[in-house]
From TrEMBL:
Domain of life: Bacteria
GO BP annotation list: lipoprotein localization to outer membrane; protein localization to outer membrane
Protein name, entry field: ABC transporter
Family: Belongs to the ABC transporter superfamily. Macrolide exporter (TC 3.A.1.122) family.
Species of the source: Sphingomonas lenta
């Protein structure tokens, strides 16, 4: 079975003055279809750098990145945009919702960019938000939602275009422990129901243990746990 994500010898270094800092040192990682993988590591270990590489958000990387079997590491900016739009979903520590748009509109917008009709996009948004317990908050703006509710909207937005792979960077890191547990449970449930795969960066081993598999970044190298 072709992995949803496969990186081979993925490397990234930064130069500061006369010093070269190697953040990623030949990372080999494969994520199977439907698999949810936790990426463990303390702050500064390179988790976000790895997600930025896989998400085609930055250049300057060496090595291979394949999404559903297709090499994407050397694509130009326009081609990368298409891959992000059609195959990837993103959830960040901070929700980054559009403040002047309500919950439904925040989930509709990426679908319209994808080419979905407004009627279908609104139906999809309502379905995802209701599945996340926000059926009564569809027309509320971010400022009217709690932190946990805002992050649920961000999860719905990430899944709106039925991505092959969801990339989540500390998706509950800005929430209190109880709310983080609830949001993570809903995130995992919905990702599985949607049939997507996910790579979730976290420093929380307790939360990581709830996923299908755990890998750890240590000194720029990936360790299977």
């Amino acid at each position: 079975m072709t992995p949803v994500l496969q990186t081979t010898a993925l490397a990234r270094s930064f130069t500061q003055g006369d010093t070269t800092i190697e953040v990623l040192r030949g990372v080999d990682l494969a994520v199977a279809p439907g698999e949810i993988v936790a990426l463990l590591g303390p702050s500064g270990s390179g988790k976000s750098t790895l997600l930025q590489a896989v998400g085609l958000l930055e250049g300057g990387f060496q090595g291979s990145i394949r999404i559903a079997g297709d090499e994407v590491a050397k694509l130009d900016a326009a081609q990368r945009t298409v891959v992000r739009r059609d195959r990837l979903g993103f959830v960040y520590q901070f929700h980054h919702l559009l403040p002047d748009f309500n919950a439904t509109e925040n989930v509709v917008l990426p679908q319209l960019v994808h080419g979905t009709s407004r009627a279908d996009a609104e139906a999809r948004a309502a379905s995802l938000l209701t599945a996340l317990g926000l059926g009564h908050r569809l027309t509320h703006r971010p400022s009217q939602l709690s932190g946990g509710e805002q992050q649920r909207v961000a999860v719905a937005r990430a899944l709106a275009n039925r991505p092959t792979l969801v990339l989540a960077d500390e998706p509950t890191g800005n929430l209190d422990e109880h709310t983080a547990d609830v949001v993570l449970a809903e995130f995992l449930r919905l990702v599985r129901e949607e049939g997507s795969a996910a790579l979730v960066a976290t420093h929380n081993e307790r939360l990581a243990a709830r996923m299908d598999r755990v890998v750890r970044l240590h000194e720029g190298r990936l360790e299977q746990l």
